[in-house]
Design goal:
Structural class: alpha+beta
CATH topology of one domain: Double Stranded RNA Binding Domain
Strand content: 5-15%
CATH architecture of one domain: 2-Layer Sandwich
Radius of gyration: 28 Å
Helix content: 55-70%
Shape: elongated
Distance between the termini: 69 Å
Length: 122
Amino acid sequence: MTEEELRATARRALALPDDALLAECEETFFVGGGPGGQHRNKTESAVRLVHRATGVTVTATERRSQLQNREAALSRMRERLRPLAHRPKPRRPTKPTRGSKERRIAEKKRRGEKKAGRRGLE
């Protein structure tokens, strides 16, 4: 997939509502370790979302509720897709103005005269 196709796919996915975006993702549940007690250690409340079209993967394990983790994963998915959808502005080369060239040359001349003045003192 080219960069432009990936960008268009991410842009299209960002425009979808939550349920449609969730339908485009492969959703898996797993046991999320850490603090939370027996409920968290025994239930598959952690959520992993993989957006099939772009290959972006996000997980959410911080809550004991699968539903809350799913919502957190969806918001993370949108956060990860946003930079993919961004189209950078094209950079156009510019030339220095005549005034800036003259100022730069005048400054070089002043600096050279200052250095030349130091040489004459020895």
